[in-house]
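Dear colleague,

Following up on yesterday's call, I've attached the two folding results inline so they're easy to grep. Please treat them as preliminary; we haven't cross-checked anything against experimental data yet. The first protein's sequence and structure tokens come first.
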Amino acid sequence: MKREQKIAVIGLGYVGLPLAIEFGKKYQVLGFDINKKRIKNLLNGKDDTNEADLDGLKAATLLESDKGLCFSSDPADLNKYNVFIVTVPTPINQFKSPDLSYLLEASEMIGKSLKKDDIVIYESTVYPGCTEEDCVPVLEQFSGLTFNKDFFCGYSPERINPGDKVNTLTKIKKVTSGSTPEIAEIVDQLYASIIVAGTHKAPSIKVAEASKAIENAQRDVNISFVNELALIFDRIGIDTNDVIDAAATKWNFLKYKPGLVGGHCIGVDPYYLAYKAASLGYHAEVILSGRRVNDNMGMFVANKVVKLLIKKNHTINGSKVLILGITFKENCPDIRNSRVIDIYKELRQFGLTVDVYDPYAGKEQVKAEYNIELIETLPVQAKMEDRYQAIILAVSHKQFLTIDFDSLKNADTIIFDTKAALDRSIVDGRL
């Protein structure tokens, strides 16, 4: 199957846009997204995720006619392409079960443009078997074509690390796979043409899907262990980070730190693996126990802050609290599945007045996702009656590490550091 590869990347978020830019340097590429505002911004050289290499974006859109990147939100434009790469979100629903709605809608849309010998490659994180058992039937239904006869599939799990400007797309080894040996080789060579770090061709699509699920489940379980240690050491009255620093003097100790576990990967992917296990009659004990510990850390932080307020004789109802950060990690605008919301909700239930400040997060997105109105600036030398009774560092954005806390606090204000990032002399508690 030798032909010119024309690539359409479906979904231009944290994963899809960097991918479209890199492929656009060597192939004819369509960056497709149903969000018309997103397409308009990209056409104007603006990226709300801050993940794109804007110089690379400009260069990829100015190349000669046989390669380069263009953008569209019109599904009819997909008809011109023969390789479709799907990078849409795969979240969980309120019952912590996989939400495949975006994935299946994208598959339906592609199915309507699918032609003989076309290849559909999925990058969205799923459970093992999802591509062939859930997506392929939709492709067949809406294309009228037969899988592995008329069209083919591949799977290459995304490995984007939001906010990381060192370990970028081309510098992270890429797992690839295909629905036949020939297609697996084509998919592998396609990615190898842009990934400097190289590729790893998995023996099957299911293996590639499983590799993504377990790499994040492993981190989740490891973090849940140190989070549980934090709960234990809090009762003992010792600092968890002191214990970790001491233990880390042994060469084979893994230095994980306690904290909130959110985001689109670590806080979500384990549920996909557990869901698949349950469908096969197995209850995932370790994976789900780790999830329970990590999901409760926001509540622990909020309750700890309330106890510290009581210890300093503050009246709880009506006290003012400032939460610094709402994104799921430092120095990036990604608010997906941020567990800071758990701290916020728990404090509000205690009757506290809570302000949230985050210079990275989009005000409109936070309002739409969490119904929180971000404060736009921090008060400078606020009046004593307007100062906060508690300040929580929830995300260690670089700007927060140089804040003048004296302008925000009273003599008896509580400062709680969930990231162990601040000078210990100014904090009352930390994870």
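Below is the second protein, in the same order (sequence, then structure):
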Amino acid sequence: MKINTITGKIVDRAYKLHSALGPGLLESVYERCLELDLREAGLIVQSQVGVPLRYKKLAFDTGYRLDLLVEDIVIIEVKSVEVLAPVHFSQLLTYMKLYDKPIGFLINFNSKSLKDGLHRLVNNFKE
């Protein structure tokens, strides 16, 4: 499946989920619902995927966890905060680099309009 097809399904399902539930719920609720919706869209989704971290002689098998990994290529970081901070974007970029994934979505479901809460980030993207 092409990346644009995968990301199109992610965006479509995120908008539908936000329209159905609206803002104000817990991050974990949006994450589980989005996971279900993406699976119903025919995508392979893993949740809470451990991110191995290596630094010099240190190794952490699961130092961090990705919220969702779609088709083993797109990372989704789900938020439900009043305002996204620069560190949220940095966090996703770090995950993308550590896990060597080209595309990531930072989705803040606590936005009046998901248009303001949906952000696509790239890391060494090659179509």
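For the second protein, one point worth flagging: The mean pLDDT is 92.

Best wishes,
A.L.
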